[in-house]
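Hey, I was hoping to borrow your eyes for a little while. A protein chain has come my way and I'm curious about its shape. Take your time with it, there's no hurry, and the full record follows here:
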Amino acid sequence: MLTIVSALRAETEPIIHAMPRVEALPCGAGSLRRYRHFDLLRVGVGEQRAVQSFKAYLERYRPSQVVLMGFAGALNAQVSIGQVFAIEKIIHAGSSQTLALPVPETFGRLARASLLTVAKALTDGGEKNKFREQFKTDLVDMESFYLAALCHERHIECFALKGVSDLADSAANMQFKKNFKSVSLILFETLKSILQIEK
């Protein structure tokens, strides 16, 4: 079973509207929708919620593959809003621990990027530059490291696909509100293409 995991409903809204679900199931503080070919799990924002929801799911179900899909802020000045990346490395900002992720052949046409997981959203240009200089990463989010770590602990194959929703600076909130719908559509189309998801 393939499981697509996101933090926000907004990240998967196009899937919810376009794909006929089989059923909706309880899953701790999260939201689980079952489709013909995959599960769609929303875990919530931040470490505590995301871990709680994902653990609740993994206690009941055993996916063979997990795709972490969602939005990320850009740390790298060369990255543009709307770009979608295959993540090959995730770093935890607090501990500097690093997890390497495989990039499957189906992701071949996507650019690769590294991802930093932080405790709170970055909305300050100075803080953004500090993290970029310290960790040399391209993107930033708040959940992926923890979810990938749970997959690694359970020997579940884990991939990550991230779309850039903002530039992780003082205008991040405004950029996110302006762009999240279009970025979620780009993510959906990318996901359909590389995973060959059909109704």
Remarks:
- Residues 172-195 form the longest helix (24 residues).
- The chain has a mean pLDDT of 92.
- Residues 95 and 118 are 10 Å apart (CA to CA).
- The radius of gyration is 16 Å.
